[in-house]
Amino acid sequence: MLTNTEVENYLQKIVIILDTGILGLVTNPRSENLALECRRWLTRIELEGIRTVSSEISDYEIRRELIRAQKINGLRRLNELREEIGCLPINRETMQKAAELWAWARQTGQSTAHEESLDGDVILAAQAIILGLKSKSPIIATTNVKHIARYTPALHWRDISLENCIKKCFYL
Fold first, then answer.
1. Any idea what the CATH number is for the domain that residue 155 is in?
2. Fewer CB atoms inside 10 A, N or C side of the chain?
3. Domain count, the chain
4. Within a 10 A sphere around the Cβ of 36, how many other Cβ atoms?
5. How far is it, in rounded angstroms, from Cα 166 to Cα 172?
């Protein structure tokens, strides 16, 4: 059992990175059950003191579809969320790490996308790994735990709470 001080210290380190599917759910302007549940989850973890952030690759994947479908309300909500929680940038360091992950996955028979695909999962994982090197404890919130967890800590978004994050990362 952690002390309150240890929990407070952990809260300074933990960062939840929203995968594309989660970003799409929390910015969906419709009142569908799953989207509502995901928005409530995001509010709950933020109230627990857990920092969340988007990523440039997830933003891109959602944004391109919203633009194509001319979903103005969705774009507005995506922009608002990006302003509120921030966004991890894609840079040279990210892309170099992503290339290493992509090559490793193929060399070991664990690829997550078609060979000619850009593979957003490895870019997202690379962002988390690099953030982890900067003394943070990133966990990717996703519906695709199997693909992402081979690279970096990931949990299904419904399983993310302060208690589960501590179990996943603090005791590694």
1. 3.40.50.1010
2. N
3. 1
4. 13
5. 9
Tokens describing residue 44: 């709950």
The Cα–Cα gap between 40 and 103 comes to 37
What are the tokens at 139?
């966990």
* Side chain identity, residue 94: T
pTM: 0.88
Alpha carbon distance 21, 59 (integer Å): 10
Q: Which long-range contacts (CB under 8 A, 24 or more apart) does 71-79 make?
A: 73/29, 74/27, 74/28, 74/29, 77/27, 77/28, 77/29, 78/23, 78/27
Q: What is the pLDDT along the chain (172 residues), one digit of tens a residue?
A: 667 787 777 778 889 999 999 999 999 877 789 999 999 999 999 998 899 999 999 999 999 999 999 999 999 999 999 999 999 999 999 999 999 999 998 888 876 666 655 688 999 999 999 998 887 889 999 998 988 998 999 999 999 988 877 776 554 4
Domain that holds residue 161: 4-170
